[in-house]
Design goal:
The chain is of the alpha/beta class and 466 residues long. 36% of the residues lie in helices and 18% in strands. It is an enzyme of class 3 (hydrolase).
Length: 466
């Protein structure tokens, strides 16, 4: 591989030597377009509006920018990142900790709804440099006086368009009112929706605008449109497409919660491994579903747009649009969830005769003619649905019990005798932990976790289904 051009190298930036050493160890050598365009402006003290899709490297862009401004010796909140969902906030916080690991004692704290309030109060009392959170919970801490933003240097609004869509504008404005006027403000958005402009004008000082949110090209995402006779024919078409493409990881987007539940149930009855993600779920059920999907223990996530906002799902092989999204920008955002990071993906959209006019509008919006393709023939119906490669096990111990990912991995690769490549993702929560293992060794792994000990203690373990 040839060396990166000088102007795309992180070394060309005025970053601390510790950050540069860490970036090199993480394998971050050449900047992505959003990093190359936005980071110099951030480091120069500018407010920035950046239009960039998920998977473009935006988190590392604003992460390096805000870490460069920290006075580590001062245990005051100097940077605040607002995210639309708890899942995105967790991912952003994890990336910031990775980027900051060579800086001395940088504390990154997450403040999200759906998590207990008490532990957050205790963590805030001990001080933090960076807070990553959802608008509702951050506003609640400000109202109770447990969060002080008087020393804030940097405010980041990540996926600002989604926060507006989800009704967070009043919370965002209340939070901004508690921050110093001298702060730097960076706004990241996948789309530059109409509601963003007035907010940006009210929050920012002469912001620089960076636009790298390209529409995906045909080399990374293959878009297919399939005409179906009527509503009753939609599910049969979806079934054929899933059996034809056999994606290991895919999302089926529906426009309503009811449809999401019905489609997921019908897929399950047809032998597919499918989970429904919608706004009626309790937080713990949502967490479990997302873990199962991320662990590759379920191959299909059937979701509404609102429920899927803020999710950063890697390695998505395909997206299926049960219908065209009501908002055409949202439709583009759906399609952009596959074919990331140089990979390839498939986007399939089902359209009835009654929706033909929406297909024309979508083509005009994208600036291209969307070709219709014939559905796979009936021969694909003889295939069996894909079986997910992994199974997920749950332990009833987590961070509160001092359980670490390394403890679980050691138990499975030690006494249980599993190979490292037979163990997948391990996610440790406050009071529970999830581990993915290859399906064929799930019984052995479960027996070891049930009978063995972690940290000198026994924990109950079970295999997680839907």
């Amino acid at each position: 591989m040839s060396d990166p051009l000088p102007d795309s190298s992180f070394a060309s930036l005025a970053l601390a030597p510790e950050l540069l050493v860490n970036l090199d160890s993480l394998g971050y050598h050449a900047m992505t377009p959003i990093q190359a365009e936005s980071l110099p402006l951030m480091l120069a003290g500018r407010d920035v509006i950046a239009q960039a899709r998920t998977g473009s490297g935006k988190t590392a862009a604003f992460g390096l920018g805000l870490l460069s401004r920290l006075a580590v010796a001062s245990f005051q909140v100097q940077a605040l990142v607002l995210c639309p969902t708890r899942e995105l906030a967790d991912q952003v916080a994890g990336e910031l900790r990775r980027l900051a690991r060579t800086l001395p004692n940088v504390k990154v704290l997450t403040l999200c709804g759906g998590a207990p309030f008490g532990p957050q109060l205790a963590s805030l009392a001990h001080g933090a440099h960076v807070v990553v959170g959802t608008p509702g919970r951050v506003e609640e801490h400000l109202r109770k006086g447990s969060l002080n933003l008087a020393a804030l240097e940097t405010l980041v609004l990540d996926e600002a368009d989604r926060m507006l869509d989800m009704g967070f504008q009043a919370s965002m404005e209340a939070i901004v009112a508690e921050t110093p006027a001298s702060r730097q403000t960076w706004l990241f958005s996948a789309t530059y929706a109409a509601g963003i402009k007035p907010i940006a004008e009210g929050l920012m000082r002469a912001p620089a605008t960076v636009e790298t949110a390209e529409v995906h090209d045909a080399t990374s995402i293959r878009q297919h449109v399939y005409r179906v006779a009527d509503e009753a024919a939609r599910f049969e078409a979806l079934r054929r497409l899933l059996l034809h493409h056999r994606p290991e990881s895919s999302v089926v987007f529906c426009n309503t919660r009811r449809e999401t539940r019905e489609v997921a149930e019908a897929l399950g009855e047809a032998g597919f491994s499918a989970l429904a993600l919608h706004g009626d779920l309790e937080q713990r059920d949502r967490d479990r579903i997302l873990v199962l999907f991320a662990n590759r223990s379920a191959s299909i996530l059937v979701a509404t747009d609102v429920a899927a906002r803020g999710l950063d799902i890697e390695s998505l092989d395909a997206v299926f649009n049960y219908q065209i999204a009501r908002d055409l920008e949202v439709h583009v955002h759906r399609i952009g969830r596959t074919g990331r990071a140089g990979g390839s993906g498939v986007a399939c959209t089902l359209v009835t005769e009654q929706e033909a006019y929406r297909l024309v509008r979508l083509g005009e919006f994208l600036g291209e003619t969307l070709e219709e393709a014939p559905l796979p023939g009936r021969a694909v119906l003889e295939r069996d649905p894909l079986t997910p490669p992994m199974a997920t096990l749950q332990l009833d111990g987590g961070k509160k019990q001092k359980v670490r990912p390394g403890d679980i991995l050691g138990a499975l690769t030690g006494e249980a005798g599993l190979r490292g490549d037979q163990v997948g993702r391990i996610k440790v929560l406050e009071r529970s932990a999830y581990v993915a293992v290859q399906r064929e060794v799930a019984k052995v792994a479960l027996a070891q976790l049930s009978a063995g000990k972690l940290k000198g203690r026994s924990f109950r373990a079970r295999r997680v289904s839907r």
